[in-house]
Amino acid sequence: IPRLPQNGAANGKRVGGEHLMAQQRRVSEPELPPLPPGLDAYRPAEVLGSVTLVVEDDIPMRTQLEIDLSDLGYQVRSAGTSDDAMEELQHGRIAAVLLDLVLDDDEAAGLALLRRIREDHPGLPVLVLSAAHASSAAIGRTYALGASSYFVKGQNAMAHVYSDLAARIIEGRQARVGLYHFGRLTFDPQG
């Protein structure tokens, strides 16, 4: 009578439930597309397809963010103004926001939008991208208004920004609180 090796394999095949479980893991874990060159970012499978809103008034920068995020597997919505951003937030299921703090050459517009996002979507991750001066007072004010992260354009590698985005989306899904507003309809997922 032939003996099975101690690891439970015979002729290179797994026996019992191990083989079935390995097949199920391969089926249930989506294969990630390769990362684009230069974008070596943290990108777990559970963020693929997440809708990210890019709020940026500078068209070349907005276009680059759209391309990068699409290449990383996100669905991207874009807005060039505060009003357009609020419209997207009211009518779409957004997982996170990348917010340019200085909209239309006015930092106050970005801060006002951040305040409105926090009022209507308290658990939504908002990553601030700013070309403005990065004084500790400005950064502190942004965090006090509810920013999830703050990055200065040109001083942070975009792969770091995109990695933080993925982490914030996962974190938000695990402990998202607050109300969802869809026009005149308000939905409370907690009750």
Tell me what you see in this structure.
The chain is of the alpha/beta class and about 190 residues long. Helix content is about 40%, strand content about 20%. The protein has helices at about 15-30, 60-70, 80-90, 105-120, 135-145, 160-175, and strands spanning about 10, 15, 50-55, 75-80, 95-100, 125-130, 150, 180, 185. The strands form three sheets. The chain has a five-stranded parallel sheet with strand order 4-3-5-6-7, with helices on both faces. It has a two-stranded antiparallel sheet with strand order 1-2. The relative contact order is 0.13. The model is unreliable at about 5-15 (pLDDT under 50).
- What profile does the largest beta sheet have? 5 strands, parallel
Our count of helices gives 6
Computed CA radius of gyration, to the nearest angstrom: 21 Å
The SSE order reads EEHEHEHEHEHEHEE
Oligomeric state of the chains? Answer: single chain
Low-confidence stretches: 7-14
Distance between the termini: 63 Å
If strands are numbered along the chain, what order do they take across the biggest sheet? 4-3-5-6-7
Provide mean pLDDT, rounded: 79
| Global geometry | globular
SS strand fraction: 15-25%
Structural class: alpha/beta
Task: Give helix % range.
Answer: 25-40%
